[in-house]
Model the fold of this input.
Amino acid sequence: MKLFFSFLFSLFYFISFAQEVAILKYKGGGDWYSNPTALPNLVKYCNDYIDTNINENIKTVEAGSTDIFQFPLLHMTGHGNVFFSDDDAENLRNYLVSGGFLHIDDNYGMEPYITKELKKVFPNSELIEIPKNHAIFSTAYNFPNGLPKIHEHDGKAPKAFGIFHESRLVLLFTLETDLGDGWEDEEVHNDPEEVREKALKMGANIVKYAFEN
Done:
């Protein structure tokens, strides 16, 4: 088993220089497939404006698959239920502590499910609010006030929570912002251009942070 995980770590170390992102598919019945144009649009924005060279063919990977180790950044979203099996949780934990990064964007209604399931991934860690002076808010574009507000749901302020491993932010949970809606094609939500621009810029920060840390 140790040899197996050593192999995975070596594999991840080798490919972490590649610029790849993927959508994380999970169990539980939640719509992991929501916002289908979001990640492709963010990738194109990053390639155009922050000098990345990300593969624009976005793949989908399952939480329990070793395929996740091919991607320095995983994106997860949805509105409803999330379930991680013990194998899923162990696989995600190994991925994250080996250098991977997971961005979870609550598309509205995901919070109570994902917070419970993350306790399986990191039983001894809590989601903590990320301070506004953290590097993720300034890697490519400055957001001195933290996350931008993209969509109104409950009228609450946007929040960024994270889990840290050995001082490195390995997981970002964005709540009450709906960044992914702002990344989607303009006609999907009819967001004003300046709102979509804020969402894409914050997304570019997340991508840049994940690739460089």
Q: What stands out?
A: Residues 2-212 form a domain with the Rossmann fold fold (CATH 3.40.50.12140). Residues 84 and 117 are 6 Å apart (CA to CA).
